Amino acid sequence: MQKASARCGAHNVLSMIKEYNFNEIERRWQNAWREGGVYRTEEVEGARHCYVLDMFPYPSGAGLHVGHPLGYIASDIYARYKRLRGYNVLHPMGYDAYGLPAEQYAIQTGQHPAVTTERNVARYREQLDKLGFSFDWDREVRTCDPGYYKWTQWTFIQLFKSYYDNTAGKALPIAALEARFAERGTEGLDAACTEVLTFTADEWKGWNEGKRQEVLMNYRLAYLADIAVNWCSELGTVLANDEVVGGLSVRGGYPVERKLMRQWSLRITAYAERLVKDLEHLDWTDSLKEIQRNWIGRSEGAAVWFPLADGGDVPDFEIFTTRPDTIFGVTFMVLCPEHEMIGKITTAEHRAEVEEYVAWAKNRSERERQAEVKRVSGVFTGAYALNPLTDEKVPIWVSDYVLAGYGTGAIMAVPAHDSRDFAFARRFGLPIRQVVSLEKDAVSDPATWTESMDAKTGYAVNSGFVTGMKVKDAMKAVIDRIEEKGIGRRTVNYRLRDAIFSRQRYWGEPFPIYYKGETADATRLTPYPIPEECLPLELPEVTDFKPTASGEPPLGHAKRWAWDEANRAVVATECIDYKTVFPLELSTMPGFAGSSGYYLRYMDPRNNEEYFSQKAVQYWQQVDLYVGGAEHGTGHLIYARFWNKFLYDLGLAAKDEPFRKLINQGMIQGRSNFVYRSKQDSNLYISKGLVKDMAEVTPIHVDINIVENDVLDLELFKEWRPEFKDARFELEDGKYVCGWEIEKMSKSMYNVQNPDDLVERYGADTLRLYEMFLGPVEQAKPWDTGGIEGVHRFLKKFWKLYQGDETVSGSEAPDDASLKVLHQTIKKVTDDIERFSFNTSVSTFMICCNELTSLKCRSTEVLKPLLVLLAPFAPHMAEELWHELGEEGSVCQAQWPECNERYLVEDTVNYPVQFNGKMRFTLALPAAATQEEALAAVMAAPESGKWMGGKEPRKVIFVPKKIINIVC
RNA sequence: GCGGACAUGGCGUAAUCGGUAGCCGCGUCAGACUUAGGAUCUGGUUCCGAAAGGAGUGGGGGUUCGAGUCCCCCUGUCCGCACCA
Predict the structure, then answer these.
(1) Less crowded by CB within 10 Å, the N or C end of chain A?
(2) What is the pTM of this model?
(3) Which of residues 620-679 of A touch strand B (CB under 7 A)?
(4) Cβ neighbours of residue A115 under 8 Å, at least 6 residues apart?
(5) pLDDT tens, residue by residue, A604-620
(6) Is the CB of A497 under 7 A from strand B?
């Protein structure tokens, strides 16, 4: 490539034209920017400010592929644009450095995760630097850095020391709750909790420290509890709900099972209401807001207590329903297999069967359960409940279609109006009773139905006092009656679960928690946070990254992992005596811990006294633009909002929401190439056009680097892998044509496009421009190297525009035509950046360049402002040309040019005509028609009298060639 | 099953307010300069048609003087959730 252009240069008549040597230019300016500290940011009082943030990457061993920088380029363009507009811009970058892959790699190779992480970070940095980003690297954070995770641990302690008061609508100190208990017990308390407790102040005062701690744990925002978790035995750890998809772990794709374990959790459900409500005001895409709404899954309904028929001392069942209006259609009840009442109510006759079913259901993996949703299973307990409104006796069944984690794990079944209850009733021959119909009184025999009527429309029928009411009214009436009778209440349920916060892994933040108690019995110990002044609690060294022989997490291997309470220090594990030296928590925090507040830390990253200073947070406020993938919609983007809201409640964060505007960049997919191996002759490869029947060949992924325009390089193919050494080919037109498919970009499909190669070949400016040119940032699109030539050609042409021969260089006065091009470009590019339409800006530059070239524009008055426009997109070239024009300072610190409206006159001609009316109409006219001719044509048209009602046109919009529009 | 987004030339796409559909680029065709071209430059390129002309934004209907854009129905693609009572 370079050789070719060098030869071309020698042939050129204008031999003083400098070559566009992008590699040299880019290297030089990247160094100059770094040395000059051009992108360093400080809080400047009074200046307008803007915080532009990318989701920080996990530095994986594979390095960056062309998909990663897409968002970084977009945000960099925006950040640079805002700077040129005079804003003080915070545009930092860092690394989400804790995580599973480094640890898995450590288990396999014995290589310490800190070492591989350091190596990967260095590689990422090198790749990022080559792309010319304007990050302020002085503010870099890494989640695995003790100076950083000190504050992750600190926030955890604050969560531990807080509870959520629903009356106040915010988090409050747990000390206030203790004081309240001592004064009034639980009277009048409305707080987020695991289990609703009722006790008096005297009871509270009578309890010992252990019991009190147990009670407080029920309210803490970070709490320890026995909960059903997603256990992944392959990874040896539990996972959060968003880390499990379809019963498999997101990382690695290993099976996940439900298991009851004692784990730390964050009471994120306390914030469910705020998390849903506050979405409304965010400048995010509707689809992402919808994803979060679905994930939080708010549903309004009623909790109703169903007593057991002849129940004795067995307490009532609490069920949750969104359809209280259908309570007259209840024909049975269903409990989840995990329900604690099953043992107490099952009759002797059914006991064996029920126990067998429960055991079977519990042993099924999540995956099996999800895969067999359609298969209905369940058993009868022999017990009956009473419908609290009708006193009707209904049988109680157990089935795994009722989930333990949602509501109370018990439902009232209304088979006529719920498809799952319907299927269950059909399977076990239970009665189905219609209580809703589309028309008043239009009842039919449910035995003839093929499906239930689930819609919340129509009228109540066969429903006692609500019969004849509309469904919506019936719902309200039934809830009112239920509350009146004291058999239930209005309530809201969320699909969102508390976030499980423990991971049985090594490479994560240690919990700043130790366990105190008289004995070594883990279940009797009480967790205490280590004093805040002692943070960070540093991750101890281990040599073995696997779980211990006794099944403890890897930290169980640590030689120094005990807390000396008196000396406030970490000491050797063998010193544990349960008097002054206690064991530390062995789990570590999950990946989302470190990423939940990093955007706040960037504001004040080197502060060792606080998470971030109030001065910094009051200055930057919140992230103005956040760019990253939509795949974080149910993970990071929920946790970060929760984290931020909590810090806001503490009076630390300046805003209730962390990310004002969010852009989701689309994934760049790979374009894979295939060769077709004959099934008869395993050494014969058939060109795509000659394959008659796909069943006779095996498609094999082939490295895209040995394919050009879908034509395979036969020699490189033979050298590629030993098994292809003696390959034979069936060629078409002397070429081997490969098949192709759009797939995820991944190593295993040999379709990864490395940005380094492209930077080497075309330069960073070309790559930046091309990634933007591919299409809208938000859209997923396949990588296609073909078009990059066009963008590169544009840059070469643009370069040439500034390389005029010396006789005219930079001195000519601007002509109107060139100024018009310039100002139209200013207008278009400014508007495009403001609405994040970077692909159209690139097109605009191309048009501008073509027009100025044909106008032979040499005026600095035009060429200089144009460089400022180009600077966000192709900063290296803009900088180089800026200096060639003899300008001082960096183009990155110049002023964005203002558009002069005078040059924006449209080709369309407006002819205002006096007339008062509203009607507009269209008429075809010859291109050269004048105003008079246009009006004459309008008046002459046969319908004109009808159109205008005898009046004259007000405004004629004349469009050349074809059409005029006339406003009357 | 529920929810969301999208559908425009051979390809990626553009059309910002309901007002000339197809900008810009790729590819391709023709030409120029060349010993040569995977360099550079010029011109053409939605489809049908020799042309005049006609058709045309997944399909069908509607609103409107006017629809790629708004409304309804259908089809297809992508994404999210998925026994959430």
Answers:
(1) N
(2) 0.89
(3) 630-631, 633-634
(4) none
(5) 999 999 999 999 999 99
(6) no
